Amino acid sequence: MKNLSLSYVILFILAITFLFPSNIYATKWAYPYVVWNDYTYIVSEENVSEIDSKIGKVTYYSDMEAHSGNFSNEYKKGTKYYSIKGISTDVAIAIEESDGRYVRANRKGKHIVDSKFDSHYGGLQGIIGIFIFLIMCIITITLINTVKKKVY
């Protein structure tokens, strides 16, 4: 009985391992950018000296995946954004560097973040995985109960 139950547990763990593999990704970004007011601004190497006023700051940093909000793949949380005198924020903003310089970031377009479920199977990978997990739980419990009835 113990060996049979242990076999089921091992089978269950192996099945879960294959259903939900842990992927390790290394991200290489095409360019450094910041997000402000739902728009992506690509950071240039151009220094800016005509700063107008503070308009925001980085609220989330990640070098692994994109996020919503005032996100950056280059600058740490708290890095400040400024408007540039004579240039609309629809065109460009300035980013304060850690050494006190300001660099220009040019607006590219709307920032779009994919859902965690946007992946294989048309975005249904997570739902399909949960469904298969539940079916496996039911099968495992049924098998264990059947074995218990035969033994007792």
End-to-end distance, in Å?
A: 10 Å
Q: What is the number of independent domains?
A: 2
Taken from the alpha-carbon principal axes, the silhouette is rod-shaped
Q: Which band does the percent of strand residues land in?
A: 25-35%
Strand line-up in the sheet with most strands = 1-2-8-7-6-3
Count of helical regions: 2
What is the oligomer described by this structure?
single chain
pLDDT < 50 runs, ≥5 residues: 117-122
Report the count of strand segments.
Answer: 8
Element order, helices and strands? Answer: HEEEEEEEEH
For the report, how would you describe the main beta sheet?
A: 6 strands, antiparallel
Radius of gyration, in angstroms, nearest whole number: 25 Å
Mean pLDDT: 81
Structure explained in plain terms:
With 152 residues, the protein is α+β, with helices and mostly antiparallel strands. The chain folds into two domains: 1-26 and 114-152; 31-113, no CATH class. It has two helices and eight strands, in the order αββββββββα. The protein has helices at 2-19, 125-151; strands spanning 33-36, 39-47, 51-57, 60-61, 71-72, 80-84, 92-96, 102-110. Strands 1-2-8-7-6-3 form a six-stranded antiparallel beta sheet, with no helix packed on it. Strand 6 and strand 7 (92-96) form a beta hairpin. Helix 1 packs antiparallel against helix 2. It starts with a helix and ends with a helix. Mean pLDDT is 81; it is low at 117-122.
